[in-house]
Amino acid sequence: MNFYSLNKKAPNVSFKDAVIKGLAPDKGLYFPESITALEKDFFNHIEYFSNNEIAFEVIKQFVADEIPEKELKEIIAETLSFEFPVVELEENISTLELFHGPTMAFKDVGARFMARCFGYFNKEKTDTQVTVLVATSGDTGGAVASGFLGVEGVDVVILYPSGKVSDVQEKQLTTLGKNIKALEVNGTFDDCQAMVKKAFLDEDLKSYRNLTSANSINVARWLPQMFYFFFAYKQLKSKHKDLVFSVPSGNFGNICAGIMAQQLGLPVKQFIASTNVNDIVPEYLKTGIYSPKPSKQTISNAMDVGDPSNFIRIQEIYKNNDTTLKQHLSSYSFTDKETKEAMVKIKETSNYITDPHGAVGYLGLKEYFKENEGQGVFLETAHPVKFLDVVEPVLGETIEYPQQIKEVIHKEKHAEVISTYSELVSFLKK
Ligand SMILES: *Cc1c(COP(=O)(O)O)cnc(C)c1O
Q: Is the CB of 221 under 6 A from ligand 1?
């Protein structure tokens, strides 16, 4: 299996090279050359497969021979060492809880899988030290830090916007030490992202450091996210209803993985990309005009993205045909006020606490069900404790720290403050 660049001006590469490079030399995102649907029999018997077995079936065509079967199965087992329960809230509405991993956000799966792939590829050549450089609006940083902690041959440098991530998120990315370094940027997430992009183009800097990214553009972070949708199907199959997934979306990596799962044959009626007021994609589906904007700050900050990088992959899946794309994908945006009201309503009617991102996903389902039917699942992409500063005042109650959070919350923060690109460069050259 090879991967091509969506800019079509770079050579095709193997899974390994796509993982190590992150972005193609022509700045395009990598995309698999072919997608082969899984056997009908697999779906007919999916309830007899363990999560690890499902994941292996789903990912193997993309990894091909680059990682031998035995090692790939080990990587999967380590990646998926927690639960992915579907919880029913209302008659046709369930939530898929993706927050049972070490940093309590769905990004743990992609980050852990990618880190272990790196670990495997690095075993072969121990002489090259790689630096993973990543900008985070909150959850990526923690998941990448935890996933890569202690991986040989890899340094991780995380840029996060000062004062714009929650306390729990900040602790998760600034307290681990070892091969993980945090840079607190005076600016927004977009500023962090811009610095990281500039660094990847900086030939001088690249002569000092082997830079790679760990955001959802990397195929090793993006593709494992397909697993969740299969796990949900396994749990809901006995209902014999058409599945509708609502995915709280920012960079559109998660929902794009869901659409890939559908390409592999997973029976899904519709995908809903639910966003906050950063509504680039909902607007595009309405008007046909794709117009990136600076991101606006919201209470669902992991989705404060003004130019979602993975949307281009969704367009590629549908061969750049807007009509087919719109048949399969709906998209709605919601304000912070609507999000808070939904959190309160879910608590009142189902006695369930969602984080702001999950609540946006719930709203997307409700909107879709005004005119359609199906078995709705919204992805609860993070545990509410990660957004305590929002959740507690909105619901008027305190939330207890789960074990994973207790372990980091009292640790000491270590971060270097930077304001400019040249400060980033001097840090990386040190
Ligand atoms: C990253 C994140 C999202 C957005 O996911 P994308 O793949 O970027 O669309 C949604 N919710 C939470 C909690 C996240 O951390």
A: no
**Residue 125 pLDDT grade (very low, low, confident, very high; cuts 50, 70, 90):** low
263 occurs within a structural domain: yes
Mean pLDDT of the chain: 94
Is 365 contained in some domain? yes
Q: Is the pLDDT of residue 343 over 90?
A: yes
Residue 307 lies in a domain: yes
Active-site residue (options: 16, 21, 107, 164)? 107
Mean pLDDT on 97-117: 95
Closest C-alpha to ligand 1, atom 2: 302
CATH of the domain at 99: 3.40.50.1100
Q: Is the CB of 408 under 6 A from ligand 1?
A: no
For the CA of 273, the nearest atom of ligand 1 = 9
For residue 394, give its domain range: 83-105+221-400
Q: Which whole number is the average pLDDT over 22-36?
A: 93
- How confident is the model over 370-389, as a mean pLDDT? 96
Give tens-digit pLDDT for 255-271: 999 999 999 999 999 99
Whether 326 is catalytic is no
| Helix (H), strand (E), coil (C) string for the chain | CEEEECCCCCCCEEHHHHHHHCECCCCCEEEECCCCCCCHHHHHCHHHCCHHHHHHHHHHHHHHHHCCHHHHHHHHHHHCCCCCCEEEEECCEEEEECCCCCCCECHHHHHHHHHHHHHHHHHHCCCCCEEEEEECCCHHHHHHHHHHCCCCCEEEEEEEECCCCCHHHHHHHHCCCCCEEEEEECCCHHHHHHHHHHHHHCHHHHCCCEEECCCCCCHHHHHHHHHHHHHHHHHHHHHCCCEEEEEECCCCHHHHHHHHHHHCCCCCCEEEEEECCCCHHHHHHHHCCCCCCCCCCCCCHHHCCCCCCCHHHHHHHCCCCHHHHHHHEEEEECCHHHHHHHHHHHHHHHCCCCCHHHHHHHHHHHHHCCCCCCEEEEEECECHHHHHHHHHHHHCCCCCCCHHHHHHHCCCCCCEEECCHHHHHHHHHC
pLDDT of the residue at 369: 97
Q: Is the pLDDT of residue 390 over 80?
A: yes
pTM: 0.95
Q: What is the share, in percent, of the chain residues with pLDDT greater than 70?
A: 99
